[in-house]
Specification:
Keywords: Calcium. GO terms for molecular function: calcium ion binding. This is EF-hand domain-containing protein. It holds the Pfam family EF-hand_7. The protein is mainly α and about 290 residues long. It folds into two domains: about 1-110, EF-hand (Recoverin, domain 1, Orthogonal Bundle), CATH 1.10.238; about 130-290, Recoverin, domain 1 (Orthogonal Bundle). The chain has helices at about 1-20, 30-45, 55-60, 70-80, 85-100, 105-110, 135-145, 155-165, 170-180, 190-215, 225-230, 240-245, 255-265, 275-280; strands at about 30, 65-70, 130, 150-155, 190, 285-290. The two termini are about 30 Å apart.
């Protein structure tokens, strides 16, 4: 049962992050006013067809006391059969509101060039190229990580392995994407047959993060249209504006890492590989996953 416990620790900690993003005044309760400010985005993020903010609030507020508690939010999301495969997307959507709330209106209207956002967490150095280990060595490493011989690794175990063994790959966005992509059975774990895929995805998403990071010149973990326009040479399309709109799936006016990943998986041809290699390799070194 311990692997399940670790999985629930990760899940509920992620849920608490979402709850905190909604709880603007930090009183551990979500008021109706706080909920109304993000209700449309919240409904869209969890795939709810309910566009009535009051009705949704009432559905979550089980005891009818006019505020949403953490336990009530957890119960509601479970009842909606929503799970954490879209956790990072939901967090980014809600975090946008927190960032926007910190923008000085007068400065934004006067210049519209300098964004006053919350200080982003330090980002790891982007890796331009990473080589995979041999499959036999990867399987040996899996056995070492799988201490209880369950044949499965949880997200927490994978995260710990990356942090301790490959600290230069400690990129939470890439780890989460790799974990989701390699968990083909949807059981919340990466099995031995999926572990090599996980390593391949770690390589892929870290390389893709280097591309994302090269465009995200203000390091706010979001790509804005101006940044795309300034890096037009990295793409093969004629209209950067049309490409930006296509990638910006939720129409938020900014491209999140998850959105870029999803789009490039379906349209790899929009990237100018030669220009991207020159940019991402300029300040990074070739690395290898040594086991």
């Amino acid at each position: 049962e311990f692997p399940a416990f670790l999985q629930f620790i990760v899940y509920y900690n992620n849920l608490w992050t979402i709850f905190s993003a909604l709880d603007k005044d930090g009183d551990r309760r979500i008021s109706k006013d706080e909920f109304h400010k993000v209700a449309p985005k919240f409904a869209k993020a969890i795939g709810s067809g309910d566009d009535d903010a009051d009705a949704m609030f009432a559905a979550i507020d089980i005891d009818g006391k006019g505020m949403i508690l953490f336990a009530e939010l957890c119960h509601y999301l479970a009842d909606q059969k929503w799970h954490d495969t879209a956790m990072d997307d939901l967090h980014d959507i809600l975090q946008d509101d927190n960032d926007d709330a910190n923008v000085n209106d007068d400065t934004a209207k006067a210049a519209n060039k300098t964004k006053n956002v919350k200080k982003a967490a330090p980002k790891p150095q982007a890796v331009a190229k990473i080589a995979l280990p041999e499959k036999s060595k990867a399987m040996e490493q899996f056995d070492k990580l799988d201490e209880n011989a369950s044949g499965k690794l949880s997200l927490a175990e994978l995260d710990k392995a990356i942090v301790t063994m490959y600290p230069n790959l400690d990129n939470k966005a890439a780890i989460m994407r790799a974990y989701k992509s390699s968990d083909t059975t949807g059981d919340g774990f990466v099995g031995k047959s999926e572990f090599m895929d996980f390593l391949q995805y770690i390589v892929y998403y870290n390389n893709l993060w280097a591309f994302f990071d090269a465009i995200d010149t203000d390091s706010d973990r979001r790509i804005h249209l101006e940044e795309m326009q300034q890096n037009a040479r990295l793409f093969t399309v004629d209209s950067i504006e049309e490409l930006f709109a296509a990638i910006d799936k939720n129409g938020g006016g900014k491209i999140l890492f998850a959105e870029l990943c999803e789009y490039l998986a379906k349209h790899p041809g929009v990237v100018n590989e030669e220009e991207v290699s020159a940019v991402t390799e300029a300040n990074t070194a070739v690395d290898t996953l040594e086991i």
